[in-house]
Amino acid sequence: xxxxxxxxxxxxxxxxxxxxxxxxxxxxxxxxxxxxxxxxxxxxxxxxxxxxxxxxxxxxxxxxxxxxxxxxxxxxxxxxxxxxxxxxxxxxxxxxxxxxxxxxxxxxxxxxxxxxxxxxxxxxxxxxxxxxxxxxxxxxxxxxxxxxxxxxxxxxxxxxxxxxxxxxxxxxxxxxxxxxxxxxxxxxxxxxxxxxxxxxxxxxxxxxxxxxxxxxxxxxxxxxxxxxxxxxxxxxxxxxxxxxxxxxxxxxxxxxxxxxxxxxxxxxxxxxxxxxxxxxxxxxxxxxxxxxxxxxxxxxxxxxxxxxxxxxxxxxxxxxxxxxxxxxxxxxxxxxxxxxxxxxxxxxxxxxxx
Length: 354
Known about the structure:
CATH class: Alpha Beta
Shape: globular
Number of domains: 1
Number of helices: 12
Order of helices and strands: EHEHHEHEHHEHEEHEEHEEHEEEEHEHEE
Helix content: 25-40%
CATH topology: Rossmann fold
Strand order of the largest sheet: 3-2-1-4-5-6-10-15-14
C-alpha cells in the first residue's frame, strides 16, 4: 500500500489540512506508516496537537522525552531555513509540503514573506535532495487554484512553487516531484465559512466582497483525498486537480443565514481577489488526462512530458464561474459537511455553531 512502512514528513503539519492528513495517514487506510514527522515553527500548535493524540489533559515530561520514539513525531523547524529542511528531509521517504502563507491580503502587504515561505521553502526541499542525494521517493507540493493565471502574490508564489517542484524532476530523477491544486477548503482556518459563522453568531451583518464572486469548494477530507490520489497515481511533474463544485458567495451566505433576520453587506473586493477562480487554464487544458474524479495536468517541459498522445478531456479552462451550484445545492453541500448553523433556543440572542 502507498504509505505502508513509509517515513512521511509533513511541513506545516499543524495547519487545518496538515492535521487532517496526519490523522488519515495514521488511520492506516493507505497502509501503516513507519513514522509521521510534523515539522512547523509553531510550538504551541505542536503542543496541543501532541496532547490531542495522547488524549491527555495536562503536559508531562514524558510527553516531551518520548517524542522521537513515537510514530507521530514533532519537530520545530522552518522551511525557510535550509539546515532545518535538511535535518528533516534526510529521514523521509515521502514529503508533503503544506507549509505556506496563504492569506491573500497578508501576502499582498508582505510579498517578501510570501516569497520566502512559498518559494524559498520549496527550493530548500529540492536543493536538499539534489545536493545530498537523499533517498526521498516522492515530494508533493500543495498548491491552490490561485496559482492558475495568478493576479495576487499568494497565487504568484504558489505558481512558482509548482514550477520549482516540477523542474526538480530533471535534477533529481530518482525522486518523483508532483503537486496538487485545489480551491477553497470548507472550514479551514482563515476561510470564508468560519468568518460567516462568526458574523452570524454576532447577529450580522455578513460581509461580502461581491455577490457575484464564485469559488471552488471542497472539504478538508476531499483535500486529503486529492493528495492520496496524487500519491497513488500521479506521474512525475503532474499536477492533480479535483473536479470540485463551485458556489456563488451570495448563495453561500444565504444558505448559512437561513431564515434569520441577518443582512448581507457588500464591501468590495479585497486586494488581489478575482471574481472567479481557475483550476485548469486554457493553456493547460490540452495537457490534461483524467483519473476518476480528478484532472492530471501533464508538465510542459519536454524532458518530462514526452510526446502528447492524449485525447483532450477539457476543451477550455476549468473555472469556478462554470456550472455554479444553486442555492439548494449549496445548502446540501454545507449540510453534507456539517457546516450549517444551528440556533440555541433558551437565550435567543446567541447561536451555537457546529
